[in-house]
Each structure stands twice: as C-alpha cells, then as structure tokens.
Design a protein that fits this description.
The chain has 112 residues and is mostly beta strands. It has strands spanning 2-3, 9-10, 12-19, 22-30, 34-39, 44-60, 63-69, 74-77, 82-100, 106-107. Helices cover 0% and strands 68% of the residues.
C-alpha cells in the first residue's frame, strides 16, 4: 500500500520523475480505492490510462462529469477543477499522472 502524505491510500504510487514544477507518477488503484475529491490551485493534471479502466470524475460550473479511461486514452484536468480518480471495474486500474505547476492538494467534499 502507498499513501500520498496521508491524504489517501492506493495500491502503489511510483514517482517516475520530478523537476521543478513538473511531476510524473504512476498510480495503481485496486477496486474500492480512490484518490478522493480534491483540486489543485495551480497544477494541471494530465492522466494517461495504462491498464484496466480508470474512472475520472470532475465537477465544475458545467456540473458533474464522468470519463472512463482505457489504456492509451488520456484526459486533462485544468487547475481548479474538483476531481477524483477510482478503479472503475476489475481488480485494479493503473494510470500515469503528469502534473505541471506548483503542487498542492486541496481536499473537497463530494459534489451534491
């Protein structure tokens, strides 16, 4: 099990690279694990599906949206966007997360 400074627990987090305001990490989340609802003040997230099916939920002025990432697919979550990531089906899901900007993690309540 891996934690992100105690904010949440997933199966594994592997830091691939970090330099200045750019970070690249590989996440593996088992069924039932999640990166909970949060946002970043300055960080843009780009998620790349690697294995399994990753559920990316986001919430903003346009309402709540859900995207299912399959291997080879990607999405961008602009800074300020409330979002969470989970394993959508199967035993686990793996994705690559590229973050650009000064990192922070602001916990958010689930959208109503």
């Amino acid at each position: 099990m891996a934690t992100d400074e105690g904010r949440y627990t997933v199966d594994s987090i592997v830091e691939i690279a970090r330099s200045g305001d750019v970070g690249v990490r590989e996440f593996t989340g088992a069924q039932g694990e999640e990166v909970p609802w949060h946002r970043h003040t300055e960080v843009q997230d780009r998620c790349y599906g690697l294995e399994g099916l990753v559920r990316v939920e986001s919430s903003g002025p346009g309402g709540k949206q859900e995207l299912l990432l399959r291997p080879g697919q990607s999405c961008v979550l602009p800074a300020g966007t409330r979002h969470r990531l989970t394993c959508a089906e199967g035993r686990y899901a793996k994705y690559l997360l590229v973050q650009v900007g000064r990192y922070d993690f602001v916990k958010e309540l689930p959208p109503a």
